Amino acid sequence: MKIDIIGDIHGCFEEFRKLTKQLGYSWDSGIPVHPSNRILAFVGDLTDRGPASLKVIEAVYELVLKQKALYSPGNHCNKLYRYFQGNKVQIKHGLETTVAEYEALPAREQKKVRKKFIDLYEQAPLYQTTDDGKLIIAHAGIRGDYIGKFNDRVKTFVLYGDITGAKHPDGTPERLDWAKSYTGELWIVYGHTPVPEARKVNHTYNIDTGCVFGGKLSGLRYPEMELVDVPSTMPYIAEKFRTVFD
């Protein structure tokens, strides 16, 4: 199985388009299709903060439906799902950009986008286990002893990382570097924590290189384990990148 795994897009549709073209995909049909039948996979956080979240939703929905692409939701996906369900959520931390796009649509188009995203989210597993179990794709990663489990504790870890409950002085949650203690042989590919360069630790790869914060959008070719990236068009915000882990 040959898969191209895409890091956190966060509404950066043009960078997504450029990256898939660089990976050899053609957009002639309106969605990226590879001539050698490689498939795309997504580590979650498709939306929020970037300029074109709804276009990303449309593309990934079509890819999952028609090309059997793999998608696992991130914490921003979870929040948007709850918003579309009518739950009370705080429209901030990036969600406000997606909501503004959504509210600018005619009512009929709103209904279509909402249904597509809800369908996409509800059919997605909490994390993907593929290639006969040799590859795990999970938004914020997953501890080795959690693989194969789907309880609330695992869900919190997969969506938010190894959070301690404490906060840094700037208000961001304290997260432990779970990848350093991972000793398994399965590959775990994840995002969630923006890093300046894709980060390989043991049999894990963090491929969130902060596209929406002016870094780049990264993809990982599997099983080749080759990294490909395109630069962001967004302003660079240095403080959003993690270089030192707790």
Automatic annotation (TrEMBL):
It holds the Pfam family Metallophos. InterPro entries: Ap4A_hydrolase, Bis(5'-nucleosyl)-tetraP_PrpE, Calcineurin-like_PHP, Metallo-depent_PP-like, MPP_PrpE-like, Ser/Thr-sp_prot-phosphatase. It catalyses: P(1),P(4)-bis(5'-guanosyl) tetraphosphate + H2O = GMP + GTP + 2 H(+). Its EC number is 3.6.1.17. It is an enzyme of class 3 (hydrolase). GO terms for molecular function: bis(5'-nucleosyl)-tetraphosphatase (asymmetrical) activity; GTP binding; nickel cation binding; phosphatase activity. Gene3D superfamilies: 3.60.21.10. It comes from the Bacteria. Residues 1-196 form the Calcineurin-like phosphoesterase domain. Keywords: GTP-binding, Hydrolase, Nickel, Nucleotide-binding. One of its GO terms (cellular component) is cytoplasm. Its cofactor is Ni(2+). Belongs to the PrpE family. Asymmetrically hydrolyzes Ap4p to yield AMP and ATP. PANTHER family: BIS(5'-NUCLEOSYL)-TETRAPHOSPHATASE PRPE [ASYMMETRICAL], METALLOPHOSPHOESTERASE. This is Bis(5'-nucleosyl)-tetraphosphatase PrpE [asymmetrical]. It comes from Peribacillus cavernae.
